[in-house]
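FAQ: What does the model actually see?

It sees only this:
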Amino acid sequence: MKNFLKEQFHFSINEIATTGLLVALEVVLNRFASINLWNLKIGLAFIPIMVAGMLLGPIKAGVVGVVSDLIGAILFPSGAFFPGFTVSAFVRGCIYGAFLYKKQGIINIAMASFLNQFVLGLFVTSYWLHILYASPYLPLVYSRLVQVIPLFFVELVVGVTLSKAVISRLVPYVKNNKQKT
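And it is asked to produce this:
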């Protein structure tokens, strides 16, 4: 456990570069390649945070979520800033990292996607919108089912595809701490 915590709170140069690239990609996907309504957001902005969870672990993936949320809110605001969404971004990254770091089986991908979409996306985000816009909670939950159900399956397919096709090839580059002279 001590080694895991030390690994999670220490960023190598390669991990810092990877984190920066994933943050930039998440900001672009979230702000420019998503369908954004006041209570719905449909897009592929989950991919960089999922990749961070697979490659870097829970804390670092949470950092990717927080930094990308803050940078996106500062540079490209799409409504009022609300810290609850930033907390959710951190938790989303932690969930991906907890379930997918060094163990990307279909069950782990399904559990991470389920928690992110149904617990965070459906109930927690609906609660944040309820607080922010003073909308009734249950109608928000029902209206967000249109977003959450399809995105759960999209996350599942994308997660399985990423784990089989991409992640195993990227790990050596991200975790390589040797300096060439």
